[in-house]
Amino acid sequence: MRIGIDIDGVLTDIERFQLDYGSKFFDEYNKFIVNPKGYEPYEVFDVEVQLDTKFWDEYYLHYLKTDCMRRFASEIINKLKDEGNEIYIITARHGEQRISTEEIQSITKNWLEENGIIYDKLIFSPEDKLETCLNNKIDVMVEDKPANINKISTKIPVVCFHSGYNEDCYGDNIYTAYSWYDVYHKIKIIQR
């Protein structure tokens, strides 16, 4: 089985990062959490997109280099790999104003290696990952972004890594998981 795995929100807890660092950053502007279930900081803090961009300009590099791996992610990915599955890391990480695409790709590869994530292929995809999944014959995708969950699930099963911003994602081909051991369990259900 070919398993696609997202990074941000699946291998990391980007929701927690945005709430913690966003609270610190937006406090300077007297902006506070108004929608903890928002996907982007501008939704969480009800700010203009330009201020959201300023937040990421300040914290994106820090996030890329230092955010922690979710518990048991590498253990479960290694287990899936040992069972004969192919692991495709599929991320929409791309260059920002201050950081080139090449630098982001290098940081990402190093971060995966440092965290013990083994994979067959690392794909830097557009935000919309359906075509990437289909072109790479992915059998199941582990994803957190609501738009991707809903679109990909029209063609292949998706394990939705639960967060506040995607708790309304449910339906055919969507299997919600709450931890990496739960991801493993949901993949086993899909494989049957």
Question: Could you walk me through the main structural features you see in this protein, from its secondary elements to its overall organization?
Answer:
With 192 residues, the protein is of the alpha/beta class. The chain has 8 helices and 6 strands; from the N terminus they run E-H-H-H-H-E-H-E-H-E-H-E-E-H. It has 2 domains: 2-13 and 69-191, 3-Layer(aba) Sandwich (Rossmann fold), CATH 3.40.50; 14-66, no CATH class. Strand 4, helix 7 (146-152) and strand 5 (158-161) form a beta-alpha-beta unit. The longest helix is centred in the N-terminal third of the chain and has 18 residues, at 49-66. The model has no long low-confidence stretch (mean pLDDT 96).
**Average residue pLDDT:** 96
- The general outline is globular
- CATH fold-level label of the largest domain: Rossmann fold
Strand order in the sheet with the most strands: 3-2-1-4-5-6
**Could you estimate the helical fraction of the residues in percent?**
40-55%
CATH class of the largest domain: Alpha Beta
Oligomeric grouping of the chains? single chain
Let me know the number of strands: 6
Strand portion, in percent? 5-15%
Overall domain count: 2
The biggest sheet, with number of strands, parallel, antiparallel or mixed sense and barrel status, is: 6 strands, parallel
Radius of gyration: 16 Å
Q: How many angstroms does the end-to-end distance come to?
A: 11 Å
The stretches of 5 or more residues where confidence is low (pLDDT under 50) are none
Q: Enumerate how many helices there are, as a single number.
A: 8
Q: What pattern of helices and strands is seen along the backbone?
A: EHHHHEHEHEHEEH
Q: What would you give as the CATH superfamily of the largest domain?
A: HAD superfamily/HAD-like
The CATH architecture term of the largest domain is: 3-Layer(aba) Sandwich
Structural class: alpha/beta
